[in-house]
Input
Amino acid sequence: MARSGLPAAFGGRLRGYNMGMSADQGDGRRSGATGQRYAPDSGPPTVPLQPREQPPRRPERRSRLWAVAALLALVVALAVVGRVADLRLWPSLPNPFAARSVDRSQPVLLRSIQDLSVHKAATGNFEVLVDIEKGSHLIPSFLKGERTLFVAAGTVDAEVDFSHLDAGAVTVSPDRRSATITLPHARLARPHVDPSRSYVANRERGALDRLGSVFSDNPTSERELYRIAEQKLADAASESELTARAEQNTREMLQGMLHSLGYSDVTVVFKDPPT
Output
């Protein structure tokens, strides 16, 4: 006691501290976890957390090179397949989802045969743009209305009717060197609109018309367009020189035929038939 020179109370605390250190050294978890000394009455020790190691990042350059290589391989494969397909080394497989068309039409029935006594001497080719607009004055066009642009292409024939010729239509001179033929004027046949060359260029319909077409059997019928186009072709043909060309061609045809039979003077006259 004389050598230490410390009070008795302080000596008791020192002994307690040494006992705590001995207990810490006996328990490897505490001493190894903190690595520090502490007093028993100072509370539980604080254990610092170790930083979590980040996973190593893969190099991006290698992944990009693989992507480029895969793309090039795909392009080469497609080129090879296309080349082989052009060579037709194997039969092409049909598309199972392709639409097919089945013709179940009945055989054609011949109803009658009609003899023709007309000479088609000229044909006019016409084309017209039919612009038809339907609507209401009280309802806007975007709700109720329809406008259709129809390009119609067709032909009109000019013909001479030989069916009503009688014995006096052809007169021959006594020496059989000249002949006179009297024919009716050329007339225009019914116009014919060619479906293969006619088409709807544009069609605009209002919202109500589009909704109503859902319940219609034939919402975009072009029958009226064809009828209007035929009338316009007929009007255009009547204003043209188609009938005059038909009469000239008929005259030249008859003169050439009679000249080959030995007639030197052939006259062809066109006049209106008697009513």
